Amino acid sequence: MAQFTFYTVAMSRGQIARWALHEAGADYDQVVFDWATRPAVLAELNPMNKVPTLVHHHGGHDHVVTECAAICHYLAETHPAAGLLPDAHEKASYFRWLFFAAGPLEQAVVAQSMGWEVPEGKSGMAGFGSLERTLDSLDAWFSTNDYVCGKRFTMADTYVGSQFIWGLRFGSIPERPAFRAYVERCTARPRYQEGLAVDAALIAEASGS
Fold it and tell me: Phi and psi for 53 in degrees, rounded to 5?
């Protein structure tokens, strides 16, 4: 048995976790399905019945990890030799932007995509304020920093980078020079390309192409 079992749908947020698995060099088996054929065990492992769901077989126990940001950091923690954890001076930026992307950024993008309007005077309650303010905060960072932790790629970039890769691809995040340059740096990574190829092959197989 591999060290990890990875439950995923090829065209989903599972692509984020797969990139993280490859960056970490993790030993994993995959259970791939589509939304209509989700195995019963998925709901047992993850009551949200969603992907990605990762199971770590360790020390005679099975540890279940869900939520993409958590999976990414967990893989960095369990594979320290991969060099993807922040050092003492990078931790503030690492956790700041990892949780910012998992919270305000995703909330703002989803709200915009759903057509949800924050009522006048209620932006403070929304957490993200507005999509524009959220994007301005990240634009300011990536205009002067190559990655989440400055000049060095860390595991936080698999999550934050994925938000921008998908956002620019599908138009849920508008094009800005700093965002495009960040995406190009992330997608040039061999382990990103490696993981993407796996999911692309699965998608092609499912579509019969």
Answer: -130, 130
Same-domain pairing of 30 and 53: yes
Token pair in block for residue 22: 């490859």
List CB contacts of 196: < 8 A, sequence separation 6 or more. 15, 19
* Length of the chain in terms of residues written: 209
**Are the C-beta atoms of 76 and 82 separated by less than 8 Å?**
yes
20 and 60 together in one domain: yes
Handedness of CA 161, 17, 103, 147 (dihedral sign): negative
pLDDT per residue as tens digits for the range 46-75: 999 999 999 999 999 999 999 999 999 999
Q: Give me the domain span that covers residue 41.
A: 4-83
pTM (two decimals): 0.96
Overall domain count for the chain: 2
